[in-house]
Specification:
The complex is a heterotrimer of chains A (about 325), B (about 425) and C (about 290).
Chain A lengths: L10 H4 L3 H7 L2 H21 L2 H24 L7 H18 L3 H23 L4 H21 L1 H4 L20 H23 L2 H11 L1 H6 L4 H27 L9 H14 L6 H19 L4 H15 L3 H18 L1
Chain B lengths: L5 H13 L19 E7 L10 H19 L8 E7 L4 H13 L5 E4 L3 H14 L2 E4 L16 E3 L4 H14 L4 E7 L2 H16 L3 E8 L7 H6 L9 E4 L3 H13 L8 E4 L4 H7 L1 H4 L3 E4 L7 H14 L5 H20 L4 H8 L3 E2 L7 E3 L6 E2 L2 E6 L12 E7 L1 H4 L10
Parallel strand pairs in B: 1-2, 1-3, 3-4, 4-5, 6-7, 6-8, 8-9
Antiparallel strand pairs in B: 10-14, 11-12, 12-13, 14-15
Helix pairs in contact in B: 2-12, 3-4, 5-6, 12-13
Chain C lengths: L1 H31 L6 H19 L3 H27 L4 H23 L15 E3 L4 E3 H23 L1 H11 L1 H6 L5 H22 L11 H14 L4 H22 L4 H18 L13
Antiparallel strand pairs in C: 1-2
Helix pairs in contact in C: 1-5, 1-6, 1-8, 1-9, 1-10, 2-3, 2-4, 2-8, 3-8, 5-6, 9-10, 9-11, 10-11
Classes of the chains: A mainly alpha (about 325), B alpha/beta (about 425), C mainly alpha (about 290).
Chain lengths: ~325, ~425, ~290
Amino acid sequence: MTSTVDTSSSPAATVPSGLATVARAPRWLRYALLAVGLAVALWLPNGLYPAVAVDILCWALFAVAIDLLLGFTGLMSFGHAAFWGTSAYATGLVAIHAGVPFPVAVLAGALVAAVLAVPLGYLAVKRTGIYFAMVTLAFAQMIYYIANKWGSLTGGENGLQSVPRELFGLDLRDEYYFYYAALPIVLLGLAAAWRIVNSPFGRVLVGIRDNPARARALGYPVHRYKLTAFVLSAFLAGLGGGLFVMGHRFVSLDALHWTTSGKAVIVVVLGGIGTLWGGVLGAAILVRLEDWLSYSGFETIGLVTGGIFVLVVLLFRRGIWGSVAALAQRWRASRRR
Amino acid sequence: MRRTTGLAAVSAAALLITGCGGGGPQSSADSKLTDDKIVLGVLNDQSGVYSELSGRNSVKAVEMAIADFKAKHGASVITDNISVESADHQNKPDIANNRAAELYDRRSADVIFDVPTSSAALKVADVAKAKQKLYFNITGATTELTGKACNKYTFHYAYDTYMLANGTGRTVTEQGAKNWYIVYPDYAFGQDMERSFSAAVQQAGGTIVGKDPTPFPNDNFSTFLLKAPTLDPKPDVLGTMQAGADLVNLVKQYNEFKLREKGVGLSVGLMFLTDIHSLTPAALAGTTYTDAWYWNFDQRNREFADRFQQVTGTRPTFAHAANYSAALQYLEAVQAVGTDDADQVVAHLEGKTIDDVFLRNGKIRAEDHRVIHDAYLAEVKPAAEVTEEWDYVKILKTIPAEQAFASPSADCTM
Amino acid sequence: MSGFLQHTFNGLVGGAFYALLALGLAVIFGMLRVVNFAHGAFYMLGAFGAYVLLTEVGVPFWGALVIVPAALGLLGMALERAFIHRLTRLDPLYNFLFTFGLTLILQDLVRSRYGVQSSPYTTPAGLQGSVDFGLFTFPTYRVFVLGFAILACLGVWWLLTHTRIGMVVRAATERPELTRAFGIDVGRWVTPVFGFGIALAGAAGVLAAPMRAVNPLMGADLIIVVFAVVVIGGLGSIFGSVAAGFGIGLIQAWGEAYLSETAPILAQTLVFIVMAVVLLWRPAGLFGREEAPA
């Protein structure tokens, strides 16, 4: 099947890549941004309720995982809750039954998510674009049904409760300390995502996103590349899901529900598709906003999140990071003139 | 979010993210009353499926309890400074987790009430244990609260799956319905209900003619309704363990397939007054279920219901009455021991027998903190007999407290 | 045997809802390349429309079956003009995301007005009995639903094959590149077709009101199954979507009737298993053509 390809229609291509902009930014600015980011990450649980800060970390990782697929491979997964949630359950089960240090359990959970991603991804990457979104959504719903039914393993709607949080005998019961125990894992995950995007493999992915026919003509096994990206993304989402379990010390079916997938995509779009770090910002804003809304006595939370989403899609497609990057670029261009 | 002003958005976001006080672990000094006040926390669903059953009106019920408590003790009341803090957990256990910790830590709640949704209910039990503060669960249905997940600071107040299933299965069978067809939603709640229900039916001498798991959630039960009258022997009753929207779907379709006319009655595992209201009593006439409390059962209940209606504009469900009762009993316990110290209050409550508007023949079991009390087998009135809004059922039988609840589970170690 | 026939008939009734929703999705997708996530929300609005008309205005079921789809069709056209239109030139994912956000908003608006508890709606007066088919009897209302759905599908088929607008829609759906190449002006039909698809979802919602729980989330899980249905049928094929809708209804009814006791997990996830098999065997769907890379 040959056909002309409209490269301009890819969601990532319609926005100038924020990442590319930052990469083109002067070295001092890049290091400054990195330093500021690290400083904020280190300070966060002092300025926020620590449990909320932990949630932000987990969702940041989840968002970056989705952006890896959406922004850099052109595949929008609307079913990533399957991996976030599966890893959450696997992590919880490993921690409960094996009593290993929590990073080991999280790693095990993420590996289970990656293994699950192989068959699902194999089927899903047979379709592209909007079909890919629908197929992933449907498979995630199937996983949800199975987990719900399989109460003996997952605890059904009671969830897995009292997941132990152990690290070489350290007392991590306080969320404040747990935040600092989880932070290195999240930073490693983010660094891995950055490394993937900036590797030759990542450049092939972008090539496939922009022009799959050309990539195929150049001899790249497109399906295999997509599948690999899918599995890597599932692994990162699984890291986030595993930490989420450890943060709350329990997991429930919500973690697998399609609304969780949808929320994750909202976070990415809000932060900026194809910017990688935009997802981190998006996660911080949405998690904080939801937390605040649930206290404010404001009842129509769906209206707010849905409204933000609609506005971002209609008016603000670059997302926060993308917009700032574009502004900065324009500012620098005008100075040069 | 404005069109191009990304920077404005970022700074707004920064404000949003940081707009919250300092962090880190905190501790408070001991005194007779911490901070010289009592704070009652209500954590429940204020916008979702349980919002009408409990929700904001439970907060008002707790406020009623405070007013009644102050009025009763007058000048000798332990403190005048009693307040309510409430939060919406949206039926999400992760939000419930954060909210509960915040209520105890930041809003100095001495106790948390309500908490519907099993996963959230269990999570908050965990938080209460960690924070060593009291927790009265009202609207969680899972027996795990007094089983594997039981702890010193958690009390399970109104009902549970065993009470519902056992009450209905046993009593209806004893009243003559011998053959049962059971459909249950295929998830933990439904599976638990089915086990307790089938056991109760069989103990009472009934037979399970057939039972089918149904998908959850599900909007089409027609396959099972077609099957029901064709079973051999034909079931006397269809026992349904569905809840919420699934129950509404099932009942609508039960009527459509005219099963009552075909001689198959309907018995429901979990039904609330609000469900009857939304299905209309006509759709459910003759349906039996177990209720934890009914507002028009006797004069005492009715008086409470009238006062409640003045405050809220509607009749109380059992959850509202139970929140009222739990708040009142907590305050009485604090008054009695003269401190809000959690350990002393727990010690006072354990084994206590109570009789109030909600708890009849009530007792707080020391072994597992199950609060036992009389339960009721209710039948929905035919439409012609409904003369007053919300007065939809008649009580067929009072199930004595000792029979209504399971004996303490071996899984519970405090 | 009568049991099997009964379950088969029952499956067709269940499939009728999938077919009506899938048909609306397919014609919208055909003209706009938009996968309307809010289709389930419009189904929900249809049911609520019937409820509101009955309780607040006193319009019975039959009136609602005309008024509600028409009103929702107009609402759909307004939404298409105001928002969706702006996004159709971009990647279809943006409209998918837009309609996802719209779904959250619509659900929450209805919830804040009518609550989460299901609202009551009874079977219309003339359709409360049962029809005797000799081998089995079936509720009259369900027979009516099936008849309505089949007539609606046949009506759409007639429109597609015998009218100019129908041919444009069919051409745009099944041979998009060719249609553009022939210089056929698709643009002026876009808005009415979008409204028509929404009206079909609204009609399905009105039909559901007497037999299903009317609440703000009634379309939320349904739409995911319908997505699986159109993936199976092939979204680019209008006939395929309808056929898959009825087919999945049948498979689900048979699965529930004969597998619930032995293999409930299979009975409950059949639609997704079928989807996986179809993706392996015919990735473009049973009746779909290989998609143009988007």
